[in-house]
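Data deposition worksheet. Section B asks for the primary sequence of the deposited chain exactly as it was used as input, without tags or linkers unless they were present during the calculation. Section C holds the resulting structure in token form. Section D is free text for depositor observations; keep each observation to a single sentence. Incomplete worksheets are returned to the depositor.
Section A, Depositor: J.P.
Section B:
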Amino acid sequence: MRRSAAVRSAAEALSCVKDGAVVAVSGFNMANTPEYLILEMHRMYRATGHPRGIFMLADALPAIPDRGLDAVAKDLFLRRDRRFMRGISVPFLGFSPWLQKLVKDDLVEAYSWPMGVAAYWFREVASGRPGVISKIGIDTAIDPRKDGGRLNGLAESRNTCSVRKIMVDGQEYLLYEAPKPNIALVRGTTADRRSNITMEDEAIRGTVLSIAQATKAHPEPGRVIAQVRHATADNASPRAVEIPGPLVDYVVVSPNAYHWQVGSTVYDPAFGSSADARAEVQQAPMDPVQQVIARRVLSELVQEAGKKGSPFIVNLGIGIPALISRLAVQEKVDDCIVTVLESGQWGGMALPGVDFGAAVGPFALSTMPDMFSNFEGGTIDAASLGFLQVGKNGDVNPSMLPGRLYGPGGFPVIAGGSPRVYFAGAFTAGKSEITVEGGKLKIAKDGPVDKFVGKVYKNFFSGSQALKFGKEVLYVTERAVFELVPDGLKLKEVAPGVDLDRDVISRMGFRPLASATPKSMDRALFSPGPLRLAARLRSA
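Section C:
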């Protein structure tokens, strides 16, 4: 009879990691990241030279600047070390500047799949399947006819993780394949006497169960190491258990310094409970120009929610879209506009920056694979996501430029699956002087970088695929709103105070379709005070 996993020191537990191991790691920024195990595994390597040659797989990114995997990447980059980590597959590198440097300099082979695909992959491998089959990625940079998810030259030559086109009933799909993990580093809050892992203090549930199951699956079942804050001699409630004890080989109790709930906070009970977020929302300042953009998207959501007549489920991406949850609370429409995050939160107020992925006062927490099923299957009603570039045919690049290796994150699955997509971002990039005054937009100095271009650098949203499947797509900025139509982008609205030719047309790499006199954006968006959207919903 297999005994329950005993609590071990990090060194004892990590001694099972052999050279060449494929190591699966949980973590969304700092949420759910087993930082202590990551750092201790690297410390063991520095002290003994082992384990070396590991290949790391993650469901998101277990790092923020100078924390978690980024701290390891910094050491490897500064020492030009190629031995500890031979390769990595992570959906997003944006919060790990040192990992980006490693990848750019070909010190590790690197792959980046959409976050939902990465989360699904663990669940599929746990079920004994070869990988994930999905339409997500077709006609984008992830398509094998383009980059195929490979980020650098080493990945091109080794192809450890592959994306292949297959046909099913005459339709194109992509098959995502990677090596099965034989080590899992996961995180929970408490290990009970049977090594059942609970997550009562965690900001997200993540993909920890699927990661553990994929590691334990045949052939060649591997070892699962769980980082926790507490170990107890009590029995956990069966309904509270996220990872059953028989799937856990070793439990390691982490010092608090390496078990932060999110990037800025050791622990806040509001991140995992249905606490009322309204008081905090009222105190939070918001950039006036960003507020205009978020308000315009929220107005669209309220209009659509009024048509549907039931709770309207909306995914929010990082950046300006995350502000929409705050505005929904301020406007008292958060009961009808149900915001969700890719990390699993339902409701509440999304946190910004390195804390993104957590929310104040969510009413439910799903696992990441389950949440991404809502996206790819179109269960949600809409999504609002940021953008870096928009092309003339509606393609969108959310994050990538030469030398800027951010990866796709959750963007392709969310944008590709949602029936309505409202891209939200500033019209130009770079230092600018743009203000909101007297119900108008005033552009004293524009940003020097054009974001609406003839062709995007890397495409992670295909306008042609969106049209093929009948999606409703808007591109919302502070000075203009565009919609996707069969012939390209159509100018729908222009902000009051804006010169159409000087401030819009001349700053685009293509000429949008437009009527003789585009509609003006609602002046209320540029005025102080609430929009009274709750009243609009009641009258719908």
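Section D:
The two ends are 63 Å apart (CA to CA).
The chain has two domains: 10-254, 277-539.
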